[in-house]
Structures are given as structure tokens and as C-alpha cells.
């Protein structure tokens, strides 16, 4: 039996904790009449099993709790994190779960206790669902809210748990996501940020996740004046980390990957240097190359923007396949051995559980700091980042390659996974979206 389903069964047997202030396991309005508003139907992207997603048609979600907001979705996207769901790497998905954790829209309906919003407001949602009033929420550390996820498996495995998350399995509470035409947002007054008129959806959408995540990755590892920063992974997260590293004073940024995305970086981020690990010579490694590139000592900071599920060599490939570990340690070991002594390494790419052959010796002996990890606390940063979009300091459109239609989203998942068609960050339109803004790609149907 797949690990995902085994964990789901265990959760059912043990039962949830009682810390939640919002309903759990509401991943599809079709699952229960009390979740559904039959006045309209919606298209949504559902997980149907390992490596299988499908478009489904289901009722629109209903207001279930006093602080709920129902959004008409006007923009969503596919994230590198969605691939971990597609692959079944993140556990506790159920057939029919609606995915999508990065979305913006228009307020359609509100529960009676929602303050500060009105019907018709254009807003972006954070990927995490926060209560706004617990130990972590009071510090705006919204990704670790203590009251929106009562999953006991996560608590036992991690010694604590994250906030609930949209479209990210029952492991994080079980909430329907925004790769749909409507979404229900619990604690809507906490988890939605109004978008001003000068910020179109195509720019504001990415405050949900990728912008806040990349910002957290850079500032929480302490990137500062004069640092040399090495970034593993040239996806959208790694790309925004380039801009944010320079903004925070980095002297040099080196990006490590192995495919066409490095050409994309050369074109759009000309200040960054690239290292293609598939083109290393005999006897060379990422570590030896980085030492050679940076004073024979190595970068000050290493940022992990890949994920633990992508093994480089056969050993970890088989260990993961056989269930001996959930994540490879290859990238984190490369980061540790590459940075200078007392260097910092931060992990933003998703790691699910346990890893073998971790180079703890290098970490200890050379004083390497593992800092700047984790699911990013979006609420801590999104207002500041919105200001940076408004002032033109950052332009999220730089990483957007495609505009697609929600009806084609299942096909888009497979294209995104295969990195076909030069696809990396997409903007997903619905029947409620405005036409493309200036500088945004035109619609492409699949
Ligand atoms: N911590 C958070 O809050 C948070 C939020 C969003 C996304 N993420 C995670 O960040 C990671 C990156 O997201 P993305 O959307 O940019 O993903 P992506 O899948 O688009 O990009 C990942 C890149 O890593 C590259 N890669 C694979 N193996 C590599 C290796 N050994 N060395 C160097 N590069 C390698 C791939 O070629 C790809 O270009 C994902 O794991 C995602 O789940 C974390
Ligand atoms: Zn994401
Ligand atoms: Zn909270």
C-alpha cells in the first residue's frame, strides 16, 4: 500500500487532535452536502492517485463558518510543491482532493463575522491558513499557526505541526485548494490581503507563496552585504531568491541546476552566475567547482530551492524507493561541504521525513549553521513585498512564462512536471479573470 494511504488510515485510526478552530478534511465540496452550495458548479483540479490529476466538476463551496470567505478565483498557479503532491511524496492525500495553494480572487460571499472586507474586493490568499490569534499568529509566523491543523501523524512525526494549508493534503488539515473557480477561505479576514488597483492579479498572485517563500529563504539565512550566495534549483523560487539576495546586499549569486532554466536565468538575471552540474568534468563536483569559483573557500550562504525527493545517484534513488528514507541528503550534503567554514545553509525545498548519510561531521567540525528553513510565514512579509511590487523594485512577471485556462490544468500539470514548452511559472485564468495585464503572456490552450 502506498505510504500516503497508510498514513491516512493511521490518522483515521488514531483520530485528530482537538486543537483546531476550523473544520478539517474539507477537501472537496462534493464530499458532503453541508460543504456545498448548489447554486453554481465549478471546475476544479483534483488529485486522483499517484501521478494522476483530473479536472472535475463539483458544486461551489458554501460558507461553513462565521469567518469564511467564498472567493471567485481569478488567478492561480502550479508550484514546485504541487509536484510533491502529484508524485504522492507528501502523504495523506485522498482521491478527489482539490489542489492549489497559490491563488487570488474576488470576494463573492462572507460569513457574518468577517471584518474589513466587502463583496467585490480583489484579494490574494496566503498558502497557509492562520487563525490570527495564537502564539505564532501573534508574531505573524502564520505558517506555524497552532489552531488550523489537528493532524496527529504530523505532530507525532515532527514533534509539532505546521498550520493548515490550502490544497496540501490531510497532513496539513485537509482544505480544498484554489486550482478551481471558487474556494472557501477559513478566517478570510486573516488569510486574505487586498490588492490595490495598481497591482494586477498577474503580479499580486505570487504573494501567496513564491515571493514570500523566496524572501523568507534569503532573509532568514541572513543574506547580507558582501555575501556570496549559492542557490540550488533554478525554478521560480530559486529565481526570486536571486533578486532578493542582490536586494539584501549579496556581492555574487551562483545558481546550480542542470537544464534550460539556466539559460532562462542567463537571459533574465544577467548578474547571476550559473553552474550546470550535468556538465562537470571528470573528478569535478559541485563542491569542488564552487570552491574554485569562490576564493577556494566556498560561498557564505547556500539556499536549497529543489526538494528532497529528487535523488541524484542510484544509492538514494533505491533507498527512497525501498522506503529506507523519505528524502535524499545529497543536496544538503553538497551545500554543507560547499560553503566556507561557519557558512549558513537554509532549506526551503520540501523535505518530508528522514534521510540517510547526512554529513553531520562536516556540519559540526566546520561550524556550519542550518538556518533559514521551513514553510515561509507569508503574513510576516506580504505587505512589505506588495510595496516592493508597487514601487517596481521587484517584478514577479519576470518568472511567468505562460497564461493557461483552468479547464486545461490537468494537462498543464504534466507539462510543468516534464518542463516542456519552456514552462515554469504559469498564471491560470478562470471565467472570472480580467484580460492579461501589460507585459503578461497571452493565453495558451492545451
Ligand atoms: N518552504 C516553503 O515555504 C515553500 C514554498 C513553496 C515552495 N517550496 C518548495 O521549494 C522548492 C522549489 O520550488 P519551485 O517552484 O522553484 O520548484 P521547481 O520544481 O519548479 O524547481 C526545482 C528546480 O530544481 C532543479 N533540481 C533538481 N535536482 C537538482 C539538484 N540536484 N541540484 C540543483 N538543482 C536541482 C530542477 O531542475 C528544477 O529546475 C520545491 O520543493 C517547493 O516545494 C517551499
Ligand atoms: Zn507552493
Ligand atoms: Zn494561529
Report on this structure.
- It is built from 14 helices and 18 strands.
- By secondary structure, it is an alpha/beta fold.
- It folds into 2 domains: 277 residues, Medium-chain alcohol dehydrogenases, catalytic domain (Quinone Oxidoreductase, Chain A, domain 1); 158 residues, NAD(P)-binding Rossmann-like Domain (Rossmann fold), CATH 3.40.50.720.
- The chain has a 6-stranded parallel β-sheet with strand order 13-12-11-14-15-16, sandwiched between helices. Strands 9-3-5-6-10 form a 5-stranded antiparallel β-sheet.
- Helix 12 links the parallel strand 15 and strand 16.
- The protein binds nicotinamide-adenine-dinucleotide and zinc ion (ZN) (2 copies).
- Nicotinamide-adenine-dinucleotide (NAD) binds next to helix 2, helix 7 and strand 12.
- The site of one zinc ion has 6 residues, from loops.
